[in-house]
What we know:
Layout: H1 10-17, H2 20-24, E1 26-27, E2 32-33, H3 45-59, H4 63-75, H5 108-121, H6 128-142, H7 162-168, H8 176-185, H9 190-197, E3 204-206, H10 211-215, H11 229-236, E4 248-250, H12 262-268, H13 275-282, H14 285-296, H15 298-312
Antiparallel strand pairs: 1-2, 3-4
Amino acid sequence: MVKMALSVSTLMVFSLLSLAPLCFSQKSKGGYLYPQYYDHSCPQAKEIVKSVVAKAVAKETRMAASLLRLHFHDCFVKGCDGSVLLDNSSSIISEKGSNPNRNSARGFNVVDDIKSALEKECPGTVSCADALALAARDSTVLAGGPSWDVPLGRKDSKGASLSGSNNIIPAPNNTFQTILTKFKVVGLNVVDLVALSGSHTIGFSRCTSFRQRLYNQSGNGQPDYSLDQSYASQLKKNCPRSGGDQNLFFLDFVTPTKFDNFYFKNILASKGLLNSDQVLLTKSEASMELVKKYAENNELFFVQFAKSMVKMGNISPLTGSKGEIRKTCRKINNS
């Protein structure tokens, strides 16, 4: 597994240290989250999550991107409350059936394994929402990316929102303004948008998520000419006009399993896979400048990614007496 380079510059170290005050007490609408939340109630919690994630990623490299994405899809809908993990039941319509998640979201079995190990060590103590937040950080580190202190103390929701999942999670074919608006709705800005989009430095996308760029970008039967045409020709080989919807393609074809800034370099070369990737360069001067900065400076990207992940992880968490600590992540207690 690719590990983060040991030769981290002094600038990087100081920059990450500067995050410490921010991380140690994240004020949210629901209360405070802080990294030491389980230090007394379940001191092994972080190591347990790290161990299970490491085994899963060693077995399948792709799982790092899947767990990171799962955290995104959780936080954008109703806040970071583990709602994305709930299965259908008599009282719940699962978010797993939404357009962004159906045949796409994965890693649920790994979260089950994490939760099982946590329950064995500390019954009824660590929430599924916190376990997922830790798993996203550990996945990033295992892929060679930055680390950060994860503020903890979230509770799990007792419900899900299929409509929220369908309407709030940014889609690959959304316009830049639509994507930015969806970020602003949950308290994130254009800097967070560009930095967090950098998670596409690892993982895959399905043919159905970018087919329109190859054949019918604007509904006029013409391809997206902002996509490098030699790259487009390569993509067409396994992403035909019809069929092959689930065929997988690297989001970053240069270093597909390594968390780095090649994602931004690819965009500058007109080789961003998704429309939502390429519009960061073509539709906004502010985002264009950030793409250029992160393409030039990997450390700058890493520092901002860590900051933005902490910020995203703090979207409307349930704290205190709100929510519950689920015994299993797929269903609410007493169901």
